Amino acid sequence: MEEIQVEPPKATEVRVKMLGSSVCHTDISSLKGFPHNQFPLALGHEGIGVIESVGDEVTNLKEGDFILPTYIGECGECENCVSEKTNLCLTHPVRLTGLMPDNTSRLSVRGQPLYHVLSCATWSEYVVVDINYLVKVDPTIDLAYASFISCGFSTGYGASWKEADIQRGSTVAVFGLGAVGLGAISGAKMMGASQIIGVDKNVMKKEKGEAFGMTHFIHSNVPDKSASDLVKEFTGRGVDYCIECTGVAPLLTESLEATKVGTGKAISVGIGVELVVPFGLLGILFGRTLKGSVLGGIKTKTDIATIVNKCQKEEFPLHELHTHEVPFVDIGKAFELLKEPDCVKVVIKM
């Protein structure tokens, strides 16, 4: 724990008192230099908070509003936003510098600027966020659930809903049954997939997958057999769609190989630390499609509201994600809890 300084918000920014946060594996990857290697680093990008103060030019938000920080904006006017083909806004892009849009930081420690993982640092009592990188939500939402929706669960859900655009009656494999993978299973169920296969080396994830709509489970820790081999043995010809949620480099090729020749589609949403990965050319040469995805193709202003509404109606068993909890002062324990085989999400109580 460190005592830090948090500046007032500038013109188009708000200062937020964090109410709750959670741990995402991207936070862990950031310690190893992804998405940037700027230090000292303030961690956290999932969470929910309440606006404490607003900048001079902020008109659509006020003190007391509950918000989710996001790491993609949505201007609604740029070429990408208008096209409806992608969620990657050109005006408010993913920030990989660890700084605010003006390339400065509102956080400092002992006189030195603090960087953050993406658009802010939610593992702090107070954060400053540019208004283009947050979404207002209903204050009655469960704080833990809101934190899951701000990144992990929504990424997987969107991968099935927005990126894969899964067709009713089709078959789907999901590699990795963490929060992102369970979101992908939930999205595949919503889209009407007839067979949803969860693939994980941890057999304890089988029960979690079934709670979200998984129809079959494949234990991938089998000697001399790849994940794609196991999927094809089970299905015969592979699946229509595969959502890769682990970020483990070799599984990028495996996700393609697990799909059907000629028509298969794989969506890559997992984030590891290897930015250059080995890739099997034959996997894609035989007519399959590989698509990368950030935040599962979810548009922050448009689509997160839909997911929040479904959350409020309890259409997802998000309580199944809430496996561990730590008070903010004991945040160091969160890293150890992630190693537990039954851990899905660690909630940080601010």
TrEMBL record:
Domain Enoyl reductase (ER): start-end pairs: 1-348
The domain of life is Eukaryota
Which InterPro entries does this chain map to? ADH-like_C (IPR013149), ADH-like_N (IPR013154), ADH_Zn_CS (IPR002328), ER (IPR020843), GroES-like_sf (IPR011032), NAD(P)-bd_dom_sf (IPR036291)
Cofactor(s) for this protein?
A: Zn(2+)
Cellular component GO terms held in the UniProt record: cytosol
Q: Which GO terms describe its molecular function?
A: S-(hydroxymethyl)glutathione dehydrogenase [NAD(P)+] activity; zinc ion binding
One GO biological process term is: formaldehyde catabolic process
Concerning its family, UniProt says:
Belongs to the zinc-containing alcohol dehydrogenase family. Class-IV subfamily.
Share what the entry says about its subunit structure, partners included: Homodimer.
Q: Report what the protein is called.
A: Enoyl reductase (ER) domain-containing protein
